[in-house]
Specification:
alpha/beta, 3 domains, 6-stranded mixed sheet, 5-stranded parallel sheet, P-loop_NTPase, ATPase domain protein, prokaryote domain protein
């Protein structure tokens, strides 16, 4: 029997239609702030449940009857050429049209066309608040879509009203968007009049970052599907999905939907396996759904490029927790919230290098139909594959490294592009990249075998020794004794011929068999 509910990957979630967990489950702080008539901000990456949370919050507050609450978007005023006057009208129209979804007629504000005073957001909110017996909780979505004097104007009007709340202005206002409030300053032209404080919204009491799902929450979400259909997501399947997604809500839903709907065709009698999870991951990456496309689009931005390049190389970064580049990437959901700084989840770690080296991947053609890097027993010949890469690198790197937008990460991206054939042949590459490690670790799995590759840029003469120490420790954590250390010259001298520069050496180090490749 077909389930009435399904895994949602578009728009906000509704409990009667979608599998979902209570978006307000860990948000006691929000109710405390509302009770204390505070103003606050909520921010999170796209498709992590902000709008779902806002709708649930407004409906719950209205149902409980102590407040009247409305969610509305200010995105209609979100373009640079708009005037303050037109922006005010658009924002007020959005508020009025949205209020009908949440409130009965007597609690709605007056229709804007019937408003007789000067139509500003501040005046409109004052008159609405005066007309009501209950305090108003106003939830402004997409606040960071506003620019320049329009953004300044809206924030100033809200700040003016803060002084006369809750009788003559909304008791609580929440500004909701992708970015934390400190980032709003970058949306204002330097020539704009200052808001008069270090923060453009200095009346806010808290800035709330919405988190990702825990493994337990993913289990709870998937158990709703099991209850409806009898189809079970086994613990090993949930564990793998958590590894792949890092709990990112859209990815968690997208993987489940891909398995249930696309791969198993809603045949709930079929068992969900780890192979289905891997196929779903690959399908989503190959298809580049809207969510992944919006992530990829951000890779072109300079401050994202600086951080992502440093992560791929393992470079240290001269930033702290207050650095806007780090905060920007974190708020977009590209990097992890905790140290060490790394790409947020395995799917992002997979798709980012693929996108950055796509042109190269497309140009690396297989020679004939036979996979020359596969042994007769179906196993991967890693030595043969890496020797072929050395030859490819010596012949092509100078041309390709110039073409890369991410030039600093070029050598790493070249190798990852070359190894993509392993994935295309049914294998898996797990990438470990983190700021400050000085390296990138690749764990390649193919037909039951595992291979450890450590990539390191030769920035200092000590790079080889440090690399040996690092790969030895990494092999210890995996319980392995064989690995490959790949050292890239950053700016190879054109005087030294490639046949001298390219080296292959097998060494024993700390009871490990390590093959060192230099190029």
């Amino acid at each position: 029997m077909k389930s009435k509910r399904y895994f949602n990957t578009t728009g906000f979630c509704m409990p009667e239609r979608h599998y979902m967990i209570d978006p307000l489950r860990n948000q006691k702080i929000i109710f405390d702030l509302i009770e204390k008539t505070q103003y606050f901000t909520i921010h999170a990456p796209r498709q992590t449940g902000k709008t779902t949370l806002l709708h649930e919050l407004a409906h719950r507050l209205n149902k409980e009857g102590n407040y009247i609450s409305v969610v509305f978007s200010v995105e209609s005023a979100g373009y640079r050429s708009i005037t303050e006057e037109i922006a005010n009208k658009k924002i007020i129209n959005s508020l009025y049209s949205s209020s009908g979804q949440y409130l009965n007629k007597k609690n709605c504000p007056i229709p804007p066309e019937k408003y007789t005073k000067d139509l500003t957001l501040e005046n409109y909110l004052i008159d609405w608040a005066i007309s009501q017996t209950k305090p108003i909780v106003l939830l402004l979505d997409e606040i960071d879509s506003l620019y320049d004097d329009v953004l300044v104007s809206v924030l100033r009007q809200l700040r003016n009203g803060f002084q006369i709340r809750p009788k003559r202005f909304p008791s609580t206002v929440a500004l909701v968007g992708l970015r934390d409030v400190r980032e709003y300053k970058t949306k204002v032209r330097p020539s704009e009049v200052s808001l008069g404080s270090g923060s453009p919204f200095n009346i806010k009491a808290e800035s709330i970052l919405l988190g990702t799902f825990t493994k337990e929450e993913i289990t709870e979400l998937y158990s709703q599907h099991t209850k409806d259909t009898g189809q079970i997501f086994l613990k090993e399947v949930v564990d793998r999905i958590y590894e792949l997604t890092g709990g990112q809500p859209w990815l968690v839903n997208a993987i489940a939907r891909e398995i249930v709907v696309k791969i198993l065709n809603e045949d709930f009698t079929k068992k969900i396996t780890l192979d289905h999870v891997e196929s779903a991951k690959e399908n989503i990456i190959q298809r580049r759904d809207t969510h992944l496309d919006s992530l990829i689009d951000k890779l072109k931005e300079e401050r994202v490029k600086n951080i992502v390049s440093a992560i791929i190389n393992g470079d240290g970064v001269l930033f702290d927790n207050y650095d806007d580049s780090l905060l920007y990437c974190r708020d977009l959901g590209i990097i992890s919230e905790t140290k060490p700084i790394r790409i947020a989840n395995e799917i992002y770690r997979e798709i980012i290098p693929r996108v950055l080296n796509r042109n190269l991947q497309d140009s690396i053609e297989e020679e004939g139909e036979t996979k020359w890097y596969i042994k007769s027993n179906g196993k991967l010949d890693m030595d043969k594959l890496l020797k072929a890469f050395q030859e490819f690198y010596s012949e092509n790197s100078e041309v390709w490294l110039e073409r890369f937008d991410y030039k600093e990460a070029g050598p790493h991206l070249l190798l990852m592009a070359f190894l993509q054939r392993v994935i295309n042949g049914g294998g898996r590459i797990n990438r470990e990249m983190a700021v400050g490690t000085g390296r990138t670790d690749l764990l390649i799995e193919f037909n039951g075998d595992k291979f450890v590759l450590e990539l390191k840029l030769k920035r200092m003469p000590s790079a080889r020794q440090k690399g040996l120490d690092q790969i030895s420790r990494y092999l210890d954590t995996l319980g392995m004794t064989k690995g490959y250390l790949i050292l890239f010259e950053i700016k190879p001298s054109s005087i030294i011929p490639w046949e001298t520069r390219v080296k292959w050496e097998d060494v024993t180090y700390q009871n490990k068999n390590i093959t060192i490749l230099e190029m």
